[in-house]
């Protein structure tokens, strides 16, 4: 009994564990990528190598594991239900927390592990407006990608192959953009250093593995469930950045992080209630009712909703049949007994 309970708990917890793990993976990519870009790595070339690594890693699995199953998405909200209200409110609170972490700093919070580091001051606010606009646009594109992925997976039921195609097309697009924006052949040079680590990590973890896991979870829980965990990455990056890069932590970041956690909990609670309702609806097994009509045919009545007795129309024999209102009738002939030959009168022989 305990083994079954633990197994059921693990099955239910798998989507949560997968999405939280992905946020740690994305956070690690942000830290490593920042270090690589600070050392002179071209961000155009980094995107090319990232998609190339992702394609090279995921394509063999797609070709082998899905060679036989490879085929030749929006969230509905009912504001009358409390669970839907919780999702909407949680989304608003989460966005507010993310905006608070981005727009408001406040006083610096001196942490124990950050007092021994010193970071040179840089003019990081000169492109603040341009960066904010680009981030908003990138967020809209990223959200659109989730919707397109959810819609595509309804018909293209091969997640590994879909991930390989996405990474391959991304490689071709990024190569074209890089040829236009970068004219120095030296930018393509890469060695066994942090630049190679950043490209490999971003490609393997944040592209190939992330796209596949997102697709699998999205197929079961929907795109809203997957994207609800994205703001959690900001908190992880802030903590990891203070450890590794000695970045400063501000009051605004802490308050925003608290709002993100509260909003995330509200959204996930609403999605959990919605999932349980759907699970209960799918678990209802229609009951069968059998009867015989006037034509001596057996009728199978499959109950769909509640079984309430109602009067059917009178059959040819004057009998009444009680049945359910929301039902589907399937009729087939009843087996007839063989005809017995009548013995002819002896006087006629």
What does this structure look like?
- The protein has nine helices and seven strands, in the order H-H-H-E-H-H-H-H-H-E-H-E-E-E-E-E.
- The chain is mainly alpha-helical and 349 residues long.
- It has a domain at 15-73 and 85-104 and 133-222.
- Helix 2 runs antiparallel to helix 5 (159-181).
- The longest helix is centred in the N-terminal third of the chain and has 37 residues, at 2-38.
Shape: globular
Oligomer: single chain
C-alpha Rg, in Å? 31 Å
SSE pattern: HHHEHHHHHEHEEEEE
In terms of DSSP E residues, the strand content is 5-15%
Number of separate strands = 7
- In spatial order, strands of the major sheet run 3-4-7
Largest sheet: 3 strands, antiparallel
Binned, the helix content reads: 55-70%
**How many helices?**
9
Structure classification:
mainly alpha
Low-pLDDT windows of residues: 285-292, 298-332, 339-345
Overall mean confidence score, pLDDT: 74
Distance between the termini: 79 Å
Brief characterization of the structure:
By secondary structure, the chain is mainly alpha-helical. It has helices at 2-38, 43-65, 82-103, 128-155, 159-181, 194-221, 223-227, 232-244, 251-283, and strands spanning 108-109, 249-250, 288-292, 297-303, 310-311, 322-323, 327-333.
């Amino acid at each position: 009994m305990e083994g079954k309970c633990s197994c059921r708990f693990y099955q239910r917890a798998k989507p949560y564990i997968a999405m939280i793990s992905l946020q740690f993976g994305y956070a690690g990519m942000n830290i490593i990528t920042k270090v690589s870009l600070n050392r002179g790595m071209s961000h155009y070339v980094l995107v090319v190598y990232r998609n190339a690594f992702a394609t090279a890693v995921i394509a063999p699995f797609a070709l082998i594991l899905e060679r036989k199953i490879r085929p030749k998405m929006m969230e509905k909200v009912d504001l009358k239900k409390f669970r839907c209200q919780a999702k909407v409110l949680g989304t608003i609170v989460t966005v507010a927390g993310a905006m608070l972490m981005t727009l408001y700093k406040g006083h610096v919070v001196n942490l124990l592990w950050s007092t021994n580091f010193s970071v040179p001051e840089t003019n990081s606010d000169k492109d603040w407006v341009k960066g904010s606009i680009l981030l908003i646009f990138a967020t809209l594109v990223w959200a659109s990608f989730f919707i397109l992925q959810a819609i595509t997976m309804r018909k293209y039921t091969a997640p590994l192959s879909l991930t390989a195609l996405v990474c391959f097309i991304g490689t071709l697009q990024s190569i074209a953009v890089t040829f236009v924006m970068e004219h120095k052949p030296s930018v393509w040079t890469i060695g066994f250093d942090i630049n190679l680590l950043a490209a490999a990590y971003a490609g393997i973890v944040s592209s190939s593995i992330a796209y596949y896991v997102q697709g699998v979870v999205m197929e079961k829980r929907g795109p809203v469930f997957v994207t609800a965990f994205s703001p959690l990455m900001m908190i992880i990056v802030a903590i990891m950045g203070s450890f590794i890069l000695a970045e400063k932590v501000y009051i605004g970041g802490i308050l925003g992080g608290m709002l993100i956690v509260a909003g995330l909990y509200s959204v996930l609670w609403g999605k959990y209630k919605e999932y349980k309702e759907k699970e209960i609806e799918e678990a209802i097994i229609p009951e069968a009712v059998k009867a015989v009509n006037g034509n001596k045919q057996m009728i199978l009545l499959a109950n769909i909703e509640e079984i309430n007795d109602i009067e059917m129309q009178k059959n040819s024999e004057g009998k009444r049949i009680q049945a359910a209102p929301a039902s589907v009738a399937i009729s087939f002939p009843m087996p007839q007994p063989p005809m017995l030959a009548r013995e002819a009168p002896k006087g006629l022989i």
